[in-house]
Amino acid sequence: MQSIRDLKPNYSGPPPSSMAPMAPMAPGPDAYLQGNLRMTLEDPDLWKTFHEIGTEMIITKPGRRMFPHCKVNLSGLIPCAKYILLVDMVPEDGFRYKWNKEKWEVAGKAEPQPPCRTYLHPDSPAPGSHWMKQSVSFLKLKLTNNTLDQHGHIILHSMHRYHPRFHIVQADDLFSVRWSVFQTFTFPETSFTAVTAYQNTKITKLKIDHNPFAKGFREEGTNKKRRATKAPACLEKRAKQSGASERESEEESIPDFCRSSFEAYEGEEGDLPKRKEAEAVKEERYSPWSAERENGVRTASPPGTDTRDMYNTEQLVPGPASYQPYRFHEYGKSPSPSSSVSSSNGGSGRSSFESRVPDVATVPEHEASKPRAQEAPPPHCGPQHLPAPQDYTGVLNMSVAQAGKPGVIGHHIYGPYGAEQPLGQWSGPGPAQYPPPHHLTAEYAAQAVHHGYHHGNVAEWSQYPLFSYSCW
DNA sequence: TCGACTGACACTTTTGAACAGG
DNA sequence: ACCTGTTCAAAAGTGTCAGTCG
Fold first, then answer.
1. Straight-line distance from CA A38 to C1' B6, in Å?
2. Could you tell me which of A138, A231, A266, A439 has the fewest CB atoms within 10 Å of its CB?
3. Residues pairing with A314 in the sheet
4. What are phi and psi of A155, to 5 degrees?
5. How far apart are CA A340 and CA A247, in angstroms?
């Protein structure tokens, strides 16, 4: 599990691709310590299988569940303290993709990011004991491509890459989330491409084989007749779309087509430490996204469940612009849209990274070294919280100023495009309205004040842009 | 013309109301 | 009256595929 300890104030940012997976493995003596809060992904093997092929998730107007769905195990929480669990979807990069001859290719710049929504786990808030006693499932999370969706589903763009982020917030109620500390986790193998129709027949086959609802489409299922009569037409169409190689995939077993693309990886399962060191190189072989990387567009984290704990989690103070570049570089993935732009303009994307990371990184450490009781409360701060067992990595600086109406006040904290993103309804009060806390950089504080709204209750709170909707 | 998208379809699983029995 | 277990229909979740749209 990785934490904000990687974001030291004196962080001097090695190239993202090299630092990302490494940092969590060996926190230095001055590493920012957090508690033993730990999140692990359930069904990692299944996720890995999908990831190795290139996971696709169907998005529909009425909303579609994910498969595999997100399910995690938690440990290290205070049994009696209440927590809120959230999930949101983060763009992997700033590109739109197309499926072309058995692989994904960049098809241009990403479309403006739709309103960023967060799925609140229906059990939230619940004591740590509740979250830890069994795995936490986000089964009912739905994805949609309907930007006008009123059901609270997470809005995504088709043919864009995303990965889910899991947030744990210690908060007695939804009202107090704003003053709470976010612990954020991601799992590289959960990244996926949002599609309106499956592009890769291997993914289709995997889904049919593993999703009970699709049992009727299995070869051995009761629906042989339907498949026998209709499948050929489908295959013909798919073949036309994907090329002749698609026909092979129909014959392949799941392990077979896994190996077909990632054979080398399969052989290295047991050699984790070495693999970690070399993964920046190896992932090129394992990832279905090699085409993009070859163009310097992006890098993908290597699949592998065994490695996920070391670098697939993060802890950070959400910030509208700062977190995003950090995220992508942190994991050795693709640059943020903004950094991508700079990269395409001749820059490496690093400048964006370096200039923004301190906004996050400088927050925690010097504060963390103090006893929590001495921490200066954020101005306009609301109820004080119990100190978490883990060191706080920062305090979410949310103003209580009632500067606007729910759903209108801007909170582009999760806006992956930062200032570039046309926020529209997300626009909020100007930074100048709320003086930053002393320990925050001006920029960070300026970003943080966009959180200035108030959560009244679950229903109302769910309408806020930060965690725009809950889905229960 | 082509690729992305939509909606109807057949199938399966899940959910919850209704009921029976203890 | 309450609880538990069973049954069954409706709802919801799947991928397929023909058609639409830009």
1. 42
2. A266
3. A184
4. -90, 125
5. 36
Rounded CA separation A15/A319 (Å): 21
Write out pLDDT tens, residues A262-308.
333 333 333 333 333 333 323 333 344 544 444 433 433 333 333 33
The end-to-end CA distance of chain A, in Å, is 29
pLDDT of residue A181: 81
**Residue A160: pLDDT band by 50, 70, 90 thresholds?**
very high
Give the separation between CA A294 and CA A331, rounded to whole angstroms: 18
Strands A160-170, A192-195: pairing is antiparallel
The one-character DSSP state at A306 is G
Q: Which residues touch A104 (CB under 8 Å, ≥6 apart)?
A: A54, A97, A98, A193, A199, A288, A289, A291, A292
Query: For residue A101, what are the contacts with CB-CB under 8 A and spacing of at least 6?
Result: A242, A243, A245
Q: Decide: CB of A199 under 7 A of nucleic strand B.
A: yes
- Residues A55, A258: contact at Cβ < 8 Å? no
* Residue A204 burial (CB count, 10 A): 19
Q: What is the mean pLDDT of residues A85-106?
A: 91
Q: Give the CA radius of gyration of chain A.
A: 22
CA distance A91 to A163: 7
Instruction: Count Cα atoms within 13 angstroms, Cβ side, for A445.
Output: 15
C strand bases under 7 Å from protein CB: 12-18
DSSP A145-212: --TT--S-PEE--TTEEEEEEEEEEE-SSGGGGGGSPEEEEE-GGG-EEEESS---HHHHHHHHHH-G
**What backbone phi and psi angles, to 5 degrees, belong to A332?**
70, 25
Our measurement of CA A59 to C1' B6, in angstroms, reads 12
Q: Cβ-count burial of A213 within 10 angstroms (0-12 exposed, 13-18 middle, 19+ buried)?
A: exposed
**pLDDT over threshold 70, residue A41:** yes
Q: How far apart, in whole angstroms, are the C-alpha atoms of residue A446 and residue A425?
A: 18
* CB count in 10 Å sphere of residue A260: 15
Please give the nucleotide, over all strands, whose C1' is closest to the CA of residue A229: C16
Question: If we measure between CA atoms, which residue out of A145, A91, A151, A88 comes closest to residue A121?
Answer: A88
Q: Is the CB of A211 under 7 A from strand B?
A: no
pLDDT in tens, A107-159: 999 988 887 888 999 888 899 999 998 889 999 999 999 888 888 899 999 99
A419: Cβ under 7 Å from strand B? no
Q: How many helices (H) and strands (E) in chain A? A: 16, 15
Answer yes or no: are the C-beta atoms of A2 and A34 closer than 8 Å: no
**DSSP string over A365-421:** HHHHTS-GGGSPPPTT--S--PPPSSPPS----------S-TTTS--GGG-TTGGGS
